[in-house]
Amino acid sequence: MDLFKTKGQYVSAVILAAGSSSRMGVDKITAQLSGLPVIAYSIKAMAESNADEIIIVASESNSDVIKTIADSIKTDKPTKVITGGKTRAESAINAFNAINEKSEIVSVHDGARPLVSPLICNKVFEKAAECGGAIAAIWVKDTIKKVENGIITATPERKNLMQAQTPQAFTREVYKKAIEYMKSNPAEITDDASAAEMAGCRVAVVEGDYRNIKLTTPDDFLVAQTLLKNQ
User: Fold this and answer.
1) Could you give the CA distance from residue 212 to residue 224 in angstroms, rounded to a whole number?
2) Cα angle vertex 44, ends 93, 89, to 5°?
3) Are 37 and 29 in contact (CB under 8 A)?
4) Across all residues in the chain, what is the average pLDDT?
5) CATH superfamily of the domain spanning 7-229
6) What does the alpha-carbon distance between residue 118 and residue 131 come to, in Å, rounded to a whole number?
7) Residue 212 · residue 140 · CB < 8 Å
8) What is the model's pTM?
9) Measured in Å, how far apart are the chain's first and last C-alpha atoms?
10) Residue-range domain boundaries for the chain
11) Is the distance from CB of 56 to CB of 94 less than 8 angstroms?
């Protein structure tokens, strides 16, 4: 892992785990996946990465359970659980307020992506240190259609399209600008990179991993279980 050191810069790894899981029907973050809670995989990945601290953003309803899970994972890295807000933007703001004062790189990962690897995390950290901001992303395989009122209105060129993943990392200065944008436009934010972009910052891309899927529906759990069996 030393190949991807961030030149001694302090990295704060934020894991978002405060979502409502409305499409899943249960709290997917604490649900079991191949013998471990979903959130445990992301905590382990960050513990094995070059991150210096881990901050887990939980909801009021699952914070106690997540703290118990986090306490069960052996790591010498400072790890804490904080309470998120009602929106993704509010949770990001709470996390930014909780990072170490020494933090120079802030990474944000979706806890619903349990198959992220420490290697991808480190690559994103390093690229963010180099460029100011970076995300993991994969090339789109299917043809994408823009649709309005049930009618196709455009077909973007696939060769220029990538699907955003997490982690997404930024220098503290860039992320502070993104946070300020979130405060003014909370409803627009779907990921941290978009806030950084809207704030006028450039964000680079690191090629991610097709295995780094997001658990949104029960079928996604079946796919993740299969991927874990075959790794």
Assistant:
1) 9
2) 15
3) yes
4) 92
5) Spore Coat Polysaccharide Biosynthesis Protein SpsA; Chain A (3.90.550.10)
6) 20
7) no
8) 0.93
9) 19
10) 7-229
11) no
